[in-house]
Automatic annotation (TrEMBL):
Keyword Magnesium: no
Origin species: Calocera viscosa (strain TUFC12733)
Domain PX: 52-186
Protein name, entry field: Phospholipase
Domain PLD phosphodiesterase stretches: 545-572, 843-870
Domain PH: 370-417
C-alpha cells in the first residue's frame, strides 16, 4: 500500500529513458496517443487511465520475510513524471503471482490481441536451500540477504518488462490498479499533499453522495457500485472508476473522526455473553495512532447496559467470568501476541519498532491465518467491512478481502495521525493556530474592495466566495470604473479558465430580507459556465426559517483570503470621510462624477432595497435623502489561514450538494493541503502574525450530526478574561447576558465584561472597555411606526443588556459598588452633510464592523455580531480570525511603557483617528504584508492561555463565568455592608415616594400596559423594571433616571481641559440668561408645565428644573455630592430650549484639541476622558442643538419624542423670505425619523398609531398643534425684522431665518469626526411604564432579533 516517503532513493528504474512530457507532446505522436486513450476500453469496459506508464519509475527497495512463501512483503517506491508524484505501495509475493495469472487468463480469451507477457521470475520463489547448495558447489556462500536482493531484482525486472509490454494497451489499467495510480492521483499531484492507499471500496450504508434527481432506485444502485477511493493527507475521495476525475464523494478528517470494525452478530451466538472490554486477546484490534481511535465490536462497550449501576454490575460479572475461565490461556496468548507485535501501539512518526511487521497492515503477515483467527475469536469481527465517521457523516465501507481492509485501516490511521485537523485546537475551533502569517487590516469599503479587486484579477485557478448578500453590479473601484465592476471581473476570470464557486444566503422571503438571491444566482451563472452558485439553506429540508449564513469570505487560489464584515453588495463601499451626499451625474467624470450609482445610494433607515433587478435605478431622491454611511472592518490573510478558510468553504459546499437537488451538475470540491514549511518563506509570503480561524456552525448550517461549534464565543470570552488594560469593540449589535421578557440571553460576553471589571476594581488596576454600536438598528421606519418592530425589539434587548433592569451590565456593577462610567462606555457614530440646495442633513454612520481589540495585542475580526444569533453556534453561521502580532513595538498603556503588537496597535490608532476626524488618508500606514517574520515558527510560543480548549472537553462553551462568579460573590461578601457599596448602590434605589410618584405619573399620562402584561406575565414585567439594593432587595425604578449620565459628568467636571481655539461654549448653568426667549417665543419665567411628579416619571429631569436637587436629595442623601452633575443636567435642558440673542449657537461642552499623535495610550485620562469622551459629548450636544436627533438621553417619554419630531418637521418647512421657485424648500432633513414621503410602494408619511398615541395622545396634542403654521403673518413680521438688520429669533410658527441657518452650519463645523455618545435613557419613562414595545411586537419570536 502507499506510504509517503521523503526523498527519492537512488536508482529508481523506469520503463523507458527519462523524457520530458512537454517535448513529447510537441513532437506529435503523444497527442495521438492521448486521443486514443480516450476511446480505448479495458476488459471491464472502463475507459483507459490517461497516464504514460513509460514515465513511471519503480524500485523494489525493501522486503520482509522473503522466505515465508506467499506472505513475503515487498516495498515498492513509485515516481511519476520526473518526481511530480511519488508514493509507496506494499505488495505480497502472492500479489505478483495473482497479477501474472490474471494476465494469462485474459490472454486465453483475447484471440488475436494477446499481451506478450514476460516470463515470471522463478528465482523469486523461496528456494533458498537449493540456491545455497548450488553456491557451495560453485565455491561461494549465499546468505539470506543475497537471496532477498536477488528476489527484489527479479521482481523489479518483471514489473519493468510488464510495463513495456502493456503501456500502450488498454490492458495497462490492471497494472495501474496494481501500482495504485489513477487519473485523479496524477491530477492531484500538482496541488501537493501526501497520497495514501488507493483502491476499490464499496459504500454499503445506503448513502448517496449527493441528493439525486430522478429515479431513486437507480441512484441507490449507483451509490452501491464499487468506487475507486484515495486516502489523502486530510480526507478520502472517491471517483466512479480509476480513469475518472469527476469526484463522486469526499470524506474529511476532523476532530470527531474514528474508524470502527463492526461485529458479525449472526456468528456470535452464546459468545455474546462473554464480551467485555477486558479481553486481552482482542486488544490487537484496539489500535491507536496518536489521538486516533480505532474500535472493534468486541472492545466496544456500547452493547453494555447504559445506566451506571447496571453497567458496573454487568461488567463485573463479565470480568469475573473471564478471569475464572480464561485467565491463564489469555495471559499466554497476550504475551505471545506482544512478542509478535500484534498489540503494537502505532508510532506517531511512522517508525516501526518491530521489524517483523508489515507496515501496510501493522501486523506480522505470518501470524494472520485462519487458524489463528479462529483461535483468538476474531471470526466475530467483520473481515471486509469497516466504518469511518466524522462530525457530519458515517460511512460503511466494504473492502475486497481482509488484507485490503487492514491496509485501508492502517493507511487511514496513518494519515489521520499526521493530520492537523484531527487534533483538538484552541477555543474548540476546527482550525489550528498558524504562525508567521502575513495579514493586513482593511478599514471601510474603499480599501477592502480595492485590495480584493486586485487579488481577483490575479486569480489563476479558482475563486471561492461566500456572502450573506452579493450584488453582481457592485463597483469595486470608483467612480465609473466599469472594468472593475464585480460581474465584469468574474466574467473576465471565468473566460480565462478560472473556476468560480459562490455560496449566498437564500432568504425566506424578499419581504423580510430583500436580497433577491435568486437574481444573484441567475445573473452570475449566466455570465459563464465556469461560475457556479449555490443558495443556502433549503428552508424546508433543514427546517430552518430563522437563521442565516452570515459569514463573508473570499479565497483566491487557495492562498489569499479576505474576511470580515463586508459583503460584496450595495451600500457597503465607503471612505473614511463617510460622505452622505452624492448628487453627481451618472457616468460623469471628475468632481461631477456619481460615486454611488443606482441602488448603491441607500439609506436603510428610510427604506429597504427593492427592485434589485434594476440596479441602476435610484431608490431615493438624492436632493432630499442622504445615504447612510457604512463603517466596516475586514482583514486580508495570506498563507495557511487562507487554506483553513478554504477548507471551511469546501466543507459547506460539499454538504450543500448532499442536501440540495440541482438541475445543473456541480462538482465536489477538495480541501487544499497545507503549505510546506519553507514554501511561503521562499515566495516572500510569510509574515509576523499568529492567526487562528474560528467559526459558529451547527447541524443546520454545516450538517454536523451532534456537534455545535461556538469557538467564536470561546475566543471572545478568553480574550476578555485575559485582558490587562483595554478592550475596544465595534459591533453592529450588543445583546448579551441578560433577560428580556422571559427570554434568557445565553451568550456570556456580558458576564465576562462584568467579571473582568469587578476584578480590575478589586485589584485597583486601570482597565477600560470602549464599545461602539449603531445609535439605531439599520432597519426602516421611525421608532414609533407600527412596522418598526425590529427596531424596537433590538433597542429593548440592548437596553436590557447595557443599563436597564437588574440583569444589565450597569446594574450588576452598581450592585458591587462600581461606577460603570469608570470602566465601560458606549459610543456611536453620526455625520452631517449639506445638499447642493443648501439644506443641512444628518444621519448615523452605521457601524457594521465586528471586531474586538485587546490591549493592542490581540485582534478578533470577523462577521459575528455580539448577540445570540452569531454567538450561539446553532443559529447564524459565522467566521472569525484571532490575530496576535509577534512583531512587538514600544507603546504605552495606562501611563506606563507597554509592549504592543504592530498589527493591532496600528488598527486601533487608525479607527480612533478616523472617528475623531483626523485625516487618516494623509497619515502613512505601514504595509503589514511586507513585514518578514521576526522569529522562526518553532521558537514562537503560541498564545493558548492555560490550555483553555482542554478545560472542559466536549463542551462547546468556555465557562469562564464560573470562576469569575466566585470572585464576584467574595467581593460582595467582603464589602457588601461598607460605605463603598452604599455610595453607588443607592443609585439603583427609589424610595416609596418614588414608587408612588411613578404610579401617579402613570395614571396622569394614561400609560397603561395591561395588554402587554397579559402577554408576557406580570411577574416578568415587574422584575425587569426593578433594581437591586445593597441588601439584595428589589425596588421599583431604573437607576439611570437618578444617576448622572456620562454627558452630565463631563459638564460637571468642565471637560475638556484644553478646548479648541475659537470654540464658544456654555461653561456654567447660570450663563443662560433668565429672561432669554425660549423656542416657543415665551419668556422662560412664563412657561407652564405639569408638576414634576406627573410630567416626568421616576424623577427624570427632562423638562422641569425646579427642585431637581431637592427631590434627589430626599430620595438619597448620599447624592448631595453629585449636585454639580445634576445642575449640569439642568444646564442641558436650559441651553437646548434657549436662544442666545445676538450670540452664536453654542453647546455646554467645547470641542477638545485633537492631536493626531496623541492616540498612543487609550487608557490614560488625558486622552480617554479629556479628548475621546469630551469630543463625543461635544458632538452629541451639537447634533442635538441643530437637528434634535433621536434617540437622545433627554427624550424619556413619547411626548418628548413627538416634540423632537415636531422640531424636525419644522426644519422641513419651506422658507418664506425671498423665496424663489428654484430655491430649496427645506432647511434641513432627518429622513430616519420623518420617513420618506414619496417612496414607491411605501406607506404615507402619516405615522400610524403607537402606544404614545393610543394611551397618552391627549398630552401630545398640545405640542403637535403648537407647531402648526397659523398663517403667513409670522413670516412677514420676521421678514420685516430681517430687513431692518436685526437678528430676531424665529417663532415656532415661522421658518428659520438665514442667519440661524448659518449659525447651525457654523456649529456643525466644530464637530470632531463622527463620535457621539450612545443614549442609555432614550424613552426610559415609557419603558418603565411598559409602554415602549407595541402589542404587535410581542408576536414575533424574540430569538429572531436577539
Amino acid at each position: 500500500m502507499p506510504f509517503p516517503f521523503g526523498s527519492q532513493r537512488e536508482g529508481p528504474t523506469s520503463a523507458a529513458e527519462e523524457l520530458n512530457i512537454q517535448d513529447e507532446l510537441l513532437a506529435g505522436p503523444l497527442a495521438g496517443l492521448m486521443l486514443r486513450m480516450y476511446f480505448e476500453r479495458d476488459e471491464q469496459y472502463q475507459r483507459r487511465v490517461p497516464v504514460f506508464l513509460h514515465h513511471l519509475k519503480i524500485r523494489v527497495s525493501d522486503s520482509l520475510h522473503p522466505l515465508h512463501g506467499t506472505h513475503a512483503v515487498f516495498r515498492i517506491e513509485c515516481e511519476y513524471a520526473n518526481g511530480a508524484s511519488r508514493w509507496v505501495i506494499y505488495r505480497e509475493l502472492r500479489d505478483f503471482i495473482s497479477l501474472h495469472a490474471h494476465y494469462r487468463v485474459a490472454n486465453a480469451y483475447a484471440w488475436g490481441n494477446r499481451v506478450e507477457l514476460p516470463e515470471f521470475p522463478r528465482t523469486s520463489l523461496p528456494y533458498f536451500n537449493r540456491l545455497r547448495k548450488e553456491g557451495r558447489e560453485k565455491g561461494y556462500e549465499v546468505t539470506r540477504a543475497d537471496f532477498a536482493r536477488l528476489q527484489r531484482e527479479a521482481l523489479e525486472n518483471y514489473l519493468i518488462g510488464l510495463i513495456r509490454t502493456t503501456m500502450f494497451r488498454a490492458e495497462a489499467n490492471r497494472l495501474c490498479r496494481f501500482f495504485e495510480i489513477s487519473t485523479l492521483s496524477v491530477s492531484l499531484a500538482q496541488r501537493g499533499g501526501v497520497q495514501g492507499k488507493a483502491g476499490i471500496l464499496r459504500v454499503a450504508s445506503g448513502h448517496t453522495s449527493r441528493k439525486a434527481k430522478g429515479h431513486q432506485l437507480i441512484a441507490w444502485k449507483k451509490s452501491h457500485d464499487p468506487k475507486w477511493w484515495l486516502a489523502r493527507e486530510s480526507y478520502m475521495v472517491a471517483v466512479d472508476t480509476i480513469a475518472d476525475t469527476d469526484i463522486y464523494d469526499v470524506f474529511l478528517f476532523d476532530t470527531d473522526f474514528i474508524i470502527e470494525r463492526p461485529k458479525r452478530v449472526y456468528r456470535q451466538g452464546l459468545n455474546f455473553f462473554h464480551l467485555s472490554g477486558h479481553h486481552p486477546h482482542l486488544e490487537d484490534e484496539e489500535e491507536t495512532a496518536g489521538a486516533h481511535r480505532h474500535t472493534d465490536a468486541e472492545s466496544d462497550e456500547t452493547d453494555l447496559p447504559k445506566t451506571g449501576p447496571q453497567r458496573k454490575l454487568f461488567t463485573k460479572l463479565l470480568r469475573s467470568h473471564a478471569n475464572g475461565k480464561d485467565e491463564k490461556p489469555d495471559g499466554v496468548n497476550s504475551e505471545k501476541e506482544q512478542q509478535n507485535g500484534v498489540t503494537e501501539q502505532h508510532d506517531p512518526n511512522g517508525v516501526q519498532e518491530d521489524l517483523t511487521l508489515d507496515p501496510s497492515i501493522r501486523k506480522d503477515p505470518r501470524t494472520i491465518t485462519e487458524n489463528d483467527n479462529k483461535k483468538k475469536g476474531r471470526s466475530n469481527v467483520s473481515q471486509h467491512t469497516f466504518y469511518v465517521q466524522n462530525s457530519q457523516r458515517r460511512l460503511k465501507l466494504i473492502a475486497r478481502n481482509e488484507r485490503q481492509m487492514h491496509q485501508w485501516i492502517a493507511s487511514i490511521e496513518r494519515m489521520a495521525a499526521k493530520c492537523v485537523w484531527k487534533g483538538r485546537n484552541r477555543f474548540e475551533s476546527f482550525a489550528p493556530i498558524r504562525l508567521n502569517v502575513a495579514a493586513q487590516w482593511l478599514v471601510d469599503g474603499r480599501d477592502y474592495f480595492w485590495n480584493l479587486s486586485r487579488a481577483l484579477l490575479l486569480a489563476k485557478e479558482r475563486i471561492y466566495i461566500h456572502d450573506w448578500w452579493l450584488s453582481p453590479e457592485l463597483y469595486m473601484r470608483r467612480p465609473n470604473k466599469e472594468h472593475y465592476r464585480l460581474d465584469q471581473i468574474l466574467r473576465k476570470k471565468a473566460r480565462e479558465g478560472v473556476k468560480i464557486y459562490v455560496i449566498v444566503y437564500q432568504e425566506v422571503s424578499s419581504r423580510t430580507t430583500p436580497t433577491d438571491s435568486n437574481y444573484t444566482k441567475q445573473k452570475l451563472m449566466g455570465l459563464h459556465p465556469n461560475i457556479l452558485v449555490q443558495r443556502s439553506p433549503s428552508h424546508f429540508a433543514t427546517g430552518n426559517f430563522y437563521w442565516a449564513h452570515h459569514e463573508k469570505l473570499c479565497v483566491i487560489d487557495e492562498a489569499i483570503a479576505f474576511m470580515g464584515g463586508l459583503d460584496l453588495c450595495f451600500g457597503r463601499w465607503d471612505t473614511s470621510q463617510h460622505i452622505m451626499i452624492d448628487q453627481g451625474e451618472p457616468g460623469g467624470h471628475g468632481e461631477n462624477a456619481q460615486v454611488w450609482p443606482g441602488k448603491d445610494y441607500n439609506n436603510g433607515r428610510v427604506a429597504d432595497f427593492f427592485a434589485l433587478n434594476k440596479p441602476l435605478e435610484d431608490m431615493h431622491d438624492r436632493s432630499k435623502v442622504p445615504r447612510m454611511p457604512w463603517h466596516d472592518v475586514a482583514v486580508q490573510i495570506v498563507g495557511q489561514p487562507a487554506r483553513d478558510i478554504c477548507r471551511h468553504f469546501v466543507q459547506r459546499w460539499n454538504w450543500l450538494l448532499r442536501v440540495k437537488a440541482h438541475t445543473r451538475v456541480m462538482p465536489f470540491l477538495l480541501p487544499p493541503p497545507d503549505f510546506h514549511a519553507n514554501e511561503l518563506d521562499a515566495q516572500g509570503l510569510a509574515g509576523t502574525c499568529e492567526v487562528q480561524i474560528c467559526r459558529s456552525c451547527g447541524p443546520w448550517s454545516m450538517g454536523t450530526q451532534n456537534k455545535i461549534e461556538l469557538s467564536i464565543q470561546n475566543a471572545y470570552l478568553k480574550a476578555i478574561q485575559m485582558s490587562e488594560h483595554f478592550i475596544y469593540i465595534e459591533n453592529q449589535f450588543f445583546i448579551t447576558s441578560t433577560q428580556v421578557d422571559d427570554v434568557k440571553i445565553e451568550n456570556k460576553i456580558g458576564d465576562a465584561l462584568v467579571n473582568r471589571i469587578i476584578r480590575a476594581h478589586r485589584e485597583g488596576t486601570p482597565w477600560r472597555a470602549c464599545i461602539l454600536i449603531p445609535v439605531l438598528p439599520g432597519f426602516p421606519f421611525p421608532i414609533d411606526h407600527s412596522d418598526a418592530s425590529s427596531v424596537r425589539i433590538i433597542l429593548e434587548c440592548q437596553n436590557r443588556t447595557i443599563a436597564r433592569g437588574p440583569d444589565s451590565i450597569f446594574a450588576r456593577l452598581r450592585r458591587e459598588g462600581i461606577d460603570p462610567d469608570d470602566y465601560i462606555t458606549f459610543f456611536s457614530l453620526r455625520g452631517w452633510g449639506k445638499f447642493e440646495s443648501g439644506v443641512l442633513t444628518t444621519e448615523q454612520v452605521y457601524i457594521h464592523g465586528k471586531i474586538m481589540l485587546v490591549d493592542d495585542r490581540i485582534a478578533l475580526i470577523g462577521s459575528a455580531n455580539i448577540n445570540e444569533r452569531s454567538q450561539r453556534g446553532d443559529r447564524d453561521s459565522e467566521l472569525l480570525s484571532v490575530i496576535r502580532d509577534t512583531d512587538m513595538i514600544d507603546g504605552r498603556m495606562a501611563g506606563k511603557p507597554y509592549k504592543v503588537g504592530r498589527f493591532v496597535h496600528t488598527l486601533r490608532m487608525r479607527l480612533m483617528r478616523e472617528h475623531l476626524g483626523v485625516d487618516v488618508d494623509a497619515i502613512y500606514n505601514d504595509d503589514l504584508m511586507a513585514n518578514s517574520p521576526v522569529t522562526p515558527a518553532d521558537e514562537i510560543q503560541k498564545w493558548d492561555p492555560e490550555g483553555e480548549q482542554q478545560d472542559q472537553p466536549g463542551d462547546g462553551v468556555t465557562r469562564l463565568h464560573h470562576h469569575l462568579n466566585r470572585v464576584e460573590r467574595a467581593y460582595e461578601r467582603d464589602i457588601g455592608g461598607q460605605a463603598g457599596q452604599v455610595a453607588f448602590g443607592l443609585g439603583e434605589i427609589t424610595s416609596r415616594a418614588g414608587g408612588k410618584m411613578f404610579h401617579k405619573a402613570r395614571e396622569a399620562l394614561g400609560l397603561k400596559s395591561d395588554h402587554i402584561d397579559a402577554v408576557i406575565g406580570d411577574k416578568t414585567v415587574e422584575r425587569e423594571r426593578h433594581m437591586v439594593d445593597q441588601d439584595g432587595k428589589y425596588k421599583q425604578g431604573f437607576a439611570s433616571s437618578i444617576v448622572p449620565t456620562l454627558e452630565e459628568k463631563v459638564i460637571a467636571e468642565r471637560l475638556p481641559k484644553q478646548a479648541e481655539r475659537g470654540d464658544v461654549a456654555l461653561r456654567e448653568p447660570d450663563e443662560v440668561p433668565e429672561g432669554t426667549v425660549r423656542e416657543n417665543g415665551q419668556p422662560q419665567s412664563e412657561e407652564k408645565h405639569l408638576p414634576r411628579d406627573v410630567e416626568e416619571p421616576l424623577g427624570a429631569p427632562a423638562l422641569s428644573v425646579e427642585g431637581d436637587n431637592q427631590a434627589l436629595g430626599e430620595l438619597n442623601p448620599m447624592f448631595s455630592e453629585n449636585n454639580i452633575a445634576l445642575s449640569a443636567r439642568q444646564a442641558l435642558r436650559k441651553q437646548l430650549d434657549a436662544k442666545i440673542h445676538a450670540h452664536p449657537w453654542n453647546v455646554p461642552t467645547p470641542a477638545p484639541v485633537i492631536d493626531p499623535d496623541g492616540f498612543m495610550d487609550p487608557v490614560c485620562p488625558e486622552f480617554f476622558e479629556d479628548v475621546w469622551i469630551a469630543a463625543a459629548v461635544h458632538n452629541t450636544e451639537a447634533y442635538r442643538k441643530v437637528f434634535r436627533c433621536v434617540p437622545d438621553d433627554l427624550v424619556t417619554t413619547w411626548k418628548q419624542y413627538k416634540e423632537y419630531i415636531a422640531w424636525q418637521e419644522r426644519l422641513d418647512r419651506p422658507a418664506v423670505v425671498d423665496m424663489q421657485p428654484d430655491q430649496p424648500k427645506n432647511l434641513s432633513h432627518i429622513p430616519g425619523e420623518l420617513g420618506n414621503i414619496n417612496m414607491p410602494g411605501k406607506q404615507s408619511s402619516k405615522v400610524p398609531s403607537s402606544p404614545a398615541e393610543t394611551s397618552s395622545s391627549d398630552n401630545h396634542g398640545e405640542s403637535e398643534t403648537a407647531t402648526k403654521v397659523e398663517g403667513m403673518s409670522g413670516g412677514s413680521s420676521a421678514a420685516a425684522g430681517a430687513g431692518k438688520g436685526e437678528k430676531r429669533p424665529s417663532r415656532p410658527d415661522e421658518p428659520f431665518e438665514q442667519w440661524e441657518r448659518d449659525e447651525m452650519e457654523n456649529l456643525l463645523k466644530h464637530v470632531k469626526g463622527h463620535l457621539v455618545l450612545y443614549p442609555t435613557r432614550f424613552l426610559e419613562g415609557e419603558d418603565m411604564a411598559n409602554n415602549f414595545l407595541f402589542t404587535s411586537d410581542r408576536v414575533f419570536p424574540m430569538p429572531i432579533y436577539d
